[in-house]
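Rotation project, supervised by the postdoc (A.L.). Task for the rotation student: set up a whole-complex structure prediction and record inputs and outputs verbatim in this book. Inputs entered:
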Amino acid sequence: MNLNEVDILLVDDSQDDVDLTLHALRAEKLANHVFIARDGEEALEFLFCTGRHAERSFDHPPKLVLLDLKMPKVDGMQVLERVKNDPRTRTIPVVLMTSSREERDMASGYDLGVNSYLQKPVDFDEFRKMVKLLGLYWLVTNRPPVLNGKANRGGQAK
Amino acid sequence: MFQFRDYSISKKLTWMNMLVSGAALLLAGVAFVAYGLFNFQKTLVSNLSIEAQIVGSNSISALVFNDPASAEKTLSALQAAPHIEYASIYTPEGQPFAAYWRDSRDRAASLPSMPAAQTQIHWFKDKQITVVRPIVFQGKAAGVVCIRSDLREWTERLQRYAVIVAAVLLISLTAAWLTSSVMRRAIADPIVRLAETARIVSRDKNYSVRAPLTSNRDELAELIATFNEMLAQIQERDTALQFEIAERTQAEERLTGQAEELSRQAEELTRSQQALETQTLMLQSVLDSISEGLVAADEAGKFLLWNAAARRIVGMGAANVPPEQWTDHYGTFLPDTVTPFPSEQNPLLRAIRGEACTAEMYVRNPELETGVWIEASANPLKGKDGVARGGVVAFRDINQRKQDEREIHKLNQELEERVVERTAQLEAANHELEAFTYSVSHDLRAPLRHIGGFSKILIEDFGSTMVPDARHHLERIGDGVRRMGQLVDELLNLARVGRHAIELRDTSLNLLVEEVVSVLQPETEGRAVSWKIADLPPAECDPVLVRQVFQNLLANALKFTRPRECAVIEVGHRQENGQMVIAIRDNGVGFNMKYTDKLFGVFQRLHRAEDFEGTGIGLATVKRIIHKHGGRVWAEAELDKGATFFFTLGAEPTMPRPEEANFDEGNPIEVRSTEGKTVEVEKKNAAAGAQL
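Outputs recorded:
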């Protein structure tokens, strides 16, 4: 998979969650351009084209970042902060998907400029329904931002 | 009897007149008679002498011739003089010679002898006068003639004289008496009248009367005038005197009054002094008996009072030292126990300066075994004009209190330390609880979701190849996961309600109910449900939380009416004690009222899970929300007849009437620890409701 053609960056340390999310995305045929980062650190390397992902280009940001909150090393909130505080990355839509419904988390998430905050339902059917809506909306319905004077790749594809 | 001097003046005058003129006349009469008789006597003697001479001369011859008859013849010639009783002639030898008797009867009587020497003599005897004359012849005594005559003529003459004198006297006295009557009128009457006037004045003290004036201009008139003038003056003086007396009487009365007043005041003063002494003694006893030290000083800092307690506390008595040396003398220190107490801050000196103050000081001097803490309260002693005349300070030994304070301070410090410790523990516990909640929320839900997700995937992807039992078990796993997810969600919800900061705003309850009803709509599918929702007044509440209340209560109503062919769920309200009560009634299975106390507890369920699913958290959440609003929630039900849940939002009104305001005091706030980490304050206003 060309790392410059990633539609969704899925950041989650739980293999179970990753599998379930991918299962749901696959059902909607949205799982082809998904890159999985297993922690915040890797997510940041990917987004800022550093470390293991130094060869990546800022010209091809993902259309959506699905970010889990609770992760080892660098947690979701820190990732969000870095992304939204950097002019190169702040236009990238970030959706926090977490088990927590803590108001505290929601409030700080929105303060940092998260685009959406979702709680993962326990019920798998509902979870699937949510992932489907999410994918369709951000990858299909939504018009991505224009980067450096030219339209995003995703936008060009449509 | 009356003396002469007691006679009236007119009588006196009369008598005087009479006596004077009587005496004068008498004297004159006597003189005249005496003179007359004397002359007559002389004449008588002279006549008799002449007759004797004659007889003698005529008898010389007889004598010479010694012829007594001739002599007797001569003598008998004396018959012509009837008054001659006897005549005789004696010889010079004194021998009787011849005699003549006028009365011959007396002839028998002897002749008296005649001393020869007795010649030229006469004498009176027995109303008779005898004259003896010598007969001289040729110068030689020839004899002696003696003739005796009676005094009848003399006596007659005397009687005549007496009658004349008496007549003259009588006439003179009558004249004198008459004259004096006239004179008396002129002299005595005015005097009598004057005396009368004087008597009236003297008797009646009436100085206005006047003696009547006479027309005369004599001394009496002058006397009366003077008397009247004197009376006038006396009257004048009397008036003045009366006036003066009146004034003096008044003055005396005043004086008497004043004297009485003075004596009364003196008595009072005495009583006051006695009372004062008693009081002073009593005060002294009181002052000495009180446990507080009392010290007073005048403006100059001279001690006026130093009671027994003061001596005991300070260890010394009043000393004659200037105020600036008090600190040294009595050993007073600031509360740090080492700095000498500054003189200018000394409470007593401040009080003398007119300043009321209190101070704590430490006293340490050689007279005291240990240092003494004292608390002093000083006040100025003010005179009537309000100016400070000194100061008084009351103080007491506060060693015990100081010790207690130290103890309390120590205990407080310990307590504070413990509070800090406990607070830290509590905070830690809170953190733990939050962490736990977070874990429940995140860590517990995640595996649940995984279990549920994978079971679902198994059923979906491999269900067709499974034995029916395996598929059934997988479905049971899915059900369990769903229930557990619900339980976790509701528990989190309950915890969140506890931490949720309430935000009151005007809320349309009808809007909330409609929202909830529409959310519950899916569950009514296939059922006949009749919603009867009244017009509810707007309320001031937290809409998010109250929405949860309606959600839970209406969901319950819907759940427990499931056995009914036609479910009837009503939402209404009523006014109770000036407060709005919301009621939600259903015609469901109801419950036995004896379990009503369990109704709102966490995990308390009155029905079997097989009959009615549920977590037993919903009503606990409702109760918590209602209590957060200060209201209360209760239920009435009957088994198989339905249940009604009531709740109020906000505390019951306590403002309008004063007696209601008392309910707050009468009903202490009850702090009740509830499950979870929150502590709720619930106001029990049931009593207030009962009285309204």
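Student's summary: The CA atoms of residues 137 and 143 of chain A lie 9 Å apart.
Supervisor addendum: Confidence is low (pLDDT under 50) at residues 149-158 of chain A.
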